[in-house]
Amino acid sequence: MSDTMLTEKTIRLHAVFSNKDEAIRACGELLLQAGYIEPAYIDAMIQRDTLSTTYVGNGVAVPHGTEAAKPMVKKTGLAVVQVPGGVDFGKGRVAKLLIAVAAKGNEHIDLLTDIAQICIDDEQLQKLLSANNPKDILEIIGRMEKR
């Protein structure tokens, strides 16, 4: 994962949301503000979760757009949103960390592999959930990639 895919500007800590659509929209806004996507991609992220949940387990959701929305991605990027109180993704699935993906081409395959590694490493996941500074998140994710 290159350093430019995730920046302090695309990390939001201590977020609170009333529902998953609000949480997904917030992820999309971070991607939009960073210049990774066109505005319509945000709706495609919500549509994608409606078709099939983007909750991946262990308190983590990976919001991303539909296949049809790929042309709306200007460049590959990530956004990380920490939700200490959790947000309900339905059926008892509560996400405390959202890692939003906007990918050109097939770059998202490698990104999803990296994200999966984060999800199964409870110690690193706890560090991400308790981070109080965007720099800490960048450091943890950067360290995990170097393994």
- Residue stretches low in confidence (pLDDT < 50, at least 5 long) are none
Average pLDDT for all residues:
91
Broad CATH class? Alpha Beta
Q: What's the number of structural domains?
A: 1
Main β-sheet: number of strands, strand sense, barrel status?
5 strands, mixed
CATH architectural category: 3-Layer(aba) Sandwich
- Going by helix content, strand content and strand pairing, the class is alpha/beta
Give the helix level as a range of percent: 40-55%
User: How far do the termini sit from each other?
Assistant: 12 Å
Count, helices: 5
Number of strands: 5
Order of strands in the sheet with most strands: 1-4-5-3-2
Q: In percent terms, what proportion of residues is strand?
A: 15-25%
Question: What is the N-to-C order of secondary-structure elements (H for helix, E for strand)?
Answer: EHHEEEEHHH
Task: Write the CATH homologous superfamily.
Answer: Mannitol-specific EII, Chain A
Principal-axis shape: globular
